[in-house]
Amino acid sequence: MPCECQVGLSSLFLGIVIILAAGVFTFFPAFLDMFNNPMYISLCWFWFTLGCAMTLFGSLWECMGCQKGGRWHNTKAREDEEAPTPYIMIAA
Q1: Model pTM score
Q2: Using alpha carbons only, what angle is made at residue 43 by residues 42 and 47, rounded to the nearest 5 degrees?
Q3: What CA–CA distances, in Å, run from 82 to 4, 41, 55, 75, 79?
Q4: How far apart are alpha carbons 67 and 7 in whole angstroms?
């Protein structure tokens, strides 16, 4: 598989970061009475909604197990591989 990115985890964590950033930018018009432009406030709502959508998508992606296994996948789950030959100590 050429691309082994973690779609679910990336969406989940990036969505949370976007929600927190939207909250920081919403702090200014809500509490400090700065940047009261309606376009600024609607952009804050857009970023908050995008963050919520990405968090929801990432949560569903991870809970439903949609991620395919790659080289990062648990090696114990592979049953077709044999155990390595153990070393034998030779007494000298």
Answers
A1: 0.68
A2: 120
A3: 25, 60, 40, 12, 8
A4: 7
Taken as a whole, the chain contains a residue count of 92
> 34-45: per-residue pLDDT in tens?
888 889 889 999
- What spatial distance separates the first Cα and last Cα of the chain, rounded to whole Å? 48
Residue whose pair of structure tokens reads 């598989």 in the numeric block: 1
Helix (H, G, I), strand (E, B) or coil at 26: helix
Cα gap 3→71, rounded to integer Å: 11
- Reading phi first (left if > 0) and then psi (alpha if -120 to 50, else beta), residue 74 is in beta
Question: What's the token pair of residue 58?
Answer: 């990432």
Residue owning tokens 């952009």: 43
